[in-house]
Amino acid sequence: MNIEACEYRNAFHLYRPDIAVVTNIDPDHLDFFKTEEAYREAFQTFARSAKCLVILTEEAEQKRMIGLAPTTVLVSRDSFEVRGEPFNGVQPGNYPYTLPTLLVPGDHIRLDASLAFVVSQLLQLNTEKSLQSLAKYPGSWRRMEIVRTTQNGNLLMSDYGHHPTEVIATL
Description:
Elements: E1 19-22, H1 36-49, E2 52-56, E3 71-75, E4 79-84, E5 93-96, H2 107-122, H3 127-136, E6 145-149, E7 155-158, H4 164-170
């Protein structure tokens, strides 16, 4: 089973995931988290609860979480590195890969696809089928969804991104 956990009021501390994927640590819910340090500490507590933590190496804030879980997987655009204890038979080491061409544009989508591929490998799913599935993925509802084109040729998009980093990535 997979879920999207929310950090609001430390709700994600209720979970003990086998694999936790952290896509960003942009400050949010500052009505509850009074300082950026409190926000960071909440993510560090969550990271310690996971058997395997998967993070993006491009995100500087996430690097503070390296080593908090027994196994940490650092993901970039074209490789992943397993650190710490083996997870589900996947030994520590560096694993290069090449993602297929994706139907959805954007570097942030490629990074999300990289995360999905790494999780598929940690779960020991078929590599070729995982890559084929990523190549066919049409995107999700309200994530850079083109609603229509105006008479002047402008695109009208629906996008649920609301953090500055998400808005910038979409633009």
